[in-house]
């Protein structure tokens, strides 16, 4: 078979298979062109998920007739004036999008430069360019793509439902809108989740306002600013609190020089930074933009330009991890503001749903009529009151309430302890509400942070045991512990082999020396098995420390004296990451007095 040069239209259709794999990819290319043209307003309309129609209208610089005729030619672009691929400062640069789209669909372009009296229009169908004609048009560019993939019908079989394709368009446009808050974005179309976000002022405040529109109105008050720079690489954005997490990674938004990316290196860095504070099956919510010299990052490594390659990936990863950890540590005891809202919603569900007795009931404001009415109401309330039977025995330690709380303690973030409920939860009073603390979860985090601080300072202080303790284990676990003896010694846990299937504990960290060493050693063996060679040494050691902290924390069910409760609250306020336990669960929820009054109909 002889070698032959492919037809130019066929070449464009092959390229379209890489660049335009679905309607969302076509929208992405067109919107990026609009942003590169300096548009301050971009309106997108789609039909049938983008298969029947994609319309993108912008108020950018527009094109002259000569530029319009050339822009649909393959590899024609205005974004590489000097041909340097390592000085790319625009979102697009390959010159493939428009000819690729025109080869698989009907492409119509109407455009007018700001200083021109009239515009120009051009139609491309199946790769064939129509005649140039004058047109009345507003300044900017209007592009319509009709019947996408009509000339490559096999591609239509690989598209998903209209709903799925429309949602993909919406997700892509939201990512671009987050990265460019100074531009107004709007989207219309069935299933697309229409939105119209006005342009925001340049700066952190405008960025946070746009993030509130994209990530939810609760995000701004649960976000931490991130602004660091190292060796010419700058990191800017906002990171959500650890307890403000979601079930998927859809809330993780990253950009490089304003280009939205889903880069493995950056996503790995985010997971590493949050690994200590977010449950393993949950994901943080954040936006970070890596700003650097275009010469140190290659954006031409992926057909969809969704991945990049840094010249010094270790520098970038280290910057992301350290910046996020510093921001989270600086948040101290802060927990998400949505915790109180969820608590109130749970109360409302009880009050308006099944009641307390398990049967259908609705609690309403009492209305006192005749004695007969009262007795009838009392009889009707019996099933509901039965639900309080398990509260007959005292379940709260209210000794802290015997004395008036110090006024300065009421002004503290976590307030003054007033009672202990069910031997597990501390109820504290603040100046404008109340706080409920899970004592075991809170103390677990405090012990863990104390152990980590000791290790970072000069090694964890160990305490020799008066009587060394023998721990019997499975021989495999015993061997695993003996192999990690040096690492465990750096954590204050000194062990040695004591025959087959046993180890001897000679020293333990002073913070947990009085704990259940048998359980600690067994759980450490399990932690080493789980994070054996898969994780870094620091991650393995952190997991071991978390296991130790869990065993030596104040257990649920233990009665605390008032001064112990207050001491726990004060230490939480002074400890980084104390808003969540080692497993990522919140350590406290805060209820504002105004919300409680609404719950009881006082407001």
Can you describe what's shown?
This protein has 603 residues and is α+β, with helices and mostly antiparallel strands. It is 37% helix and 21% strand. The chain has 19 helices and 24 strands. Strand 22 and strand 23 form a beta hairpin. Mean pLDDT is 83; it is low at 354-394.
**Average of pLDDT:** 83
| Distance linking N and C termini | 84 Å
Count of strand segments: 24
User: Helix/strand/pairing class, anyone?
Assistant: alpha+beta
Outline the low-pLDDT stretches. Answer: 354-394
Q: Helical element count?
A: 19
Can you give the helix content as a percent range?
25-40%
Shape: elongated
Q: Which percent range describes the beta-strand content?
A: 15-25%
Largest sheet: 9 strands, mixed
Layout: helices, strands, pairs:
Blueprint: H1 8-19, H2 23-36, E1 41-47, E2 53-58, H3 65-71, H4 97-104, E3 106-112, E4 119-125, E5 128-129, E6 133-135, E7 140-146, H5 153-156, H6 162-179, E8 184-188, E9 195-197, H7 204-215, E10 223-230, E11 233-240, E12 252-256, E13 259-261, H8 264-274, E14 286-291, E15 297-298, E16 309-310, H9 313-330, H10 338-352, H11 371-385, E17 396-397, H12 407-410, E18 416-421, E19 425-430, E20 433-438, H13 439-458, E21 462-472, H14 475-483, H15 485-490, E22 494-497, E23 502-509, H16 517-530, H17 537-551, H18 562-574, E24 588-592, H19 593-599
Parallel strand pairs: 1-8, 12-14
Antiparallel strand pairs: 1-2, 2-7, 3-4, 3-7, 4-5, 4-6, 8-9, 10-11, 11-14, 12-13, 15-16, 17-18, 18-19, 19-20, 20-24, 21-23, 22-23
Helix pairs in contact: 1-4, 2-6, 6-7, 8-9, 13-17, 13-18, 14-16, 16-17
């Amino acid at each position: 078979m002889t070698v032959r040069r492919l037809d130019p239209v066929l070449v464009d259709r092959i390229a379209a298979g890489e660049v335009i794999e679905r309607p969302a990819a076509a929208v992405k290319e067109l919107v990026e062109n609009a942003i590169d043209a300096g548009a301050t307003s971009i309106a997108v309309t789609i039909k049938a998920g983008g298969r029947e129609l994609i319309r993108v209208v912008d108020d950018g610089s527009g094109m002259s007739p000569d530029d319009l005729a050339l822009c649909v030619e393959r590899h024609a672009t205005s974004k590489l004036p000097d041909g340097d691929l390592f000085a790319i400062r625009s979102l697009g640069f390959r010159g493939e999008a428009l000819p690729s789209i025109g080869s698989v669909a009907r492409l119509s372009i109407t455009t007018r430069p700001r200083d021109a009296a009239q515009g120009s229009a051009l139609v491309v169908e199946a790769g064939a360019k129509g005649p140039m004609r004058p047109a009345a048009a507003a300044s900017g560019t209007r592009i319509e793509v009709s019947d996408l993939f009509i000339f490559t019908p096999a591609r239509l079989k690989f598209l998903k439902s209209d709903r799925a394709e429309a949602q993909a368009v919406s997700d892509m446009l939201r990512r671009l809108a987050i990265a460019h808050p100074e531009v107004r974005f709007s989207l219309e179309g069935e299933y697309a989740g229409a939105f119209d976000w006005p342009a925001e002022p340049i700066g952190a405040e405008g960025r946070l306002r746009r993030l509130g529109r994209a990530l939810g109105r609760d995000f701004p008050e649960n976000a931490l600013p991130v602004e660091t720079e190292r060796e010419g690489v700058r990191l800017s954005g906002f990171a959500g609190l650890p307890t403000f997490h979601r079930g998927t990674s859809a809330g993780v938004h990253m950009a490089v020089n304003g280009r939205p990316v889903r880069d493995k290196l950056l996503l790995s860095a985010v997971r590493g930074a949050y690994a200590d504070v977010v449950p393993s099956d949950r994901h943080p919510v954040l936006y970070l933009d890596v700003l650097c010299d275009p010469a140190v990052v290659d954006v031409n490594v992926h057909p969809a330009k969704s991945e990049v390659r840094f010249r010094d990936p270790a520098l970038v990863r280290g910057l992301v991890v350290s910046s996020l950890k510093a921001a989270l540590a600086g948040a101290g005891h802060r927990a998400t503001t949505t915790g109180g809202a969820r608590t109130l919603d749970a109360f409302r569900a009880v009050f308006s749903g099944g009641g307390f007795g398990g049967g259908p009931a609705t609690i309403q404001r009492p209305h006192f009529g005749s004695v007969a009415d009262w007795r009838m109401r009392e009889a009707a309330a019996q099933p509901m009151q039965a639900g309080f039977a398990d509260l007959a025995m005292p379940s709260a330690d209210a000794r802290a309430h015997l004395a008036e709380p110090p006024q300065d303690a009421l002004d503290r973030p976590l307030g003054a302890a007033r009672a202990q409920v069910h031997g597990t939860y501390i109820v504290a009073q603040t100046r404008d509400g109340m706080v409920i603390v899970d004592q075991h979860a809170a103390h677990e985090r405090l012990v863990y942070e104390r152990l980590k601080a000791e290790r970072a300072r000069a090694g964890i202080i160990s305490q020799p045991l008066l009587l060394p303790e023998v721990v019997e284990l499975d021989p495999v676990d015993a061997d695993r512990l003996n192999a990690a003896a040096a690492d465990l010694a750096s954590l204050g846990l000194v062990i040695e082999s004591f025959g087959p299937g046993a180890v001897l504990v000679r020293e333990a960290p002073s913070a947990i020396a009085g704990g259940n060493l048998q359980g600690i050693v067994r759980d450490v063996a399990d932690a080493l098995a789980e994070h054996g060679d898969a994780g870094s040494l620091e991650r393995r050691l952190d997991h071991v420390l978390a296991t130790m902290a869990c065993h030596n924390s104040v257990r649920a069910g233990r009665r605390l004296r008032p001064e112990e409760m207050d001491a726990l609250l004060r230490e939480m306020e002074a400890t980084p990451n104390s808003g969540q336990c080692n497993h990522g669960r919140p350590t406290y929820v805060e209820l504002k007095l105004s919300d409680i009054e609404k719950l009881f109909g006082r407001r």
